[in-house]
Amino acid sequence: MGASRQKKDAVLRAIGYELDMLATAPTMRTTAIVIDPNVSEAQRRIVEWSIRNTYLEGPVVHVRNLVEFFYRPGPRIGAASYVKNWSRKAPDASKLLGENVEDLYADICDKLSHIGSKRAEKREWDVKVMADGLIETARVFESHLNDHDRRIVHDATNHIAW
Hints:
7 helices; mainly alpha
């Protein structure tokens, strides 16, 4: 027995949120943030590190969630729950994301989920390439949805021109 309509609708709303957040991420990383000039140098360094870390990790978490939905079959509701034969219709993730999607996914999981261990190395994430690639994937996905599902995705994405 498949997932209930209510559950599937909730997942589509969550995917819309992930897409919307990812669509705004490249601009957020270039937006100037003003730090109170009265804070100490030590406080300034902590605030600057926190901001950089937030802008680095935030979009990458959305990338991971969307890669799971579109490209990693498993027990969770994924794109194939909405689009028959999605694995044949989905665009080439590695081509759109600029690297092998399985390697990217593993790297994201290793670099972001590091509680109890130190990050082995720094990684520069090309959020713009990943965002563009996943939004293109979403457009292909959206083109195969029924009207009900398409409406849910559109309602949850304010920053994507379908």
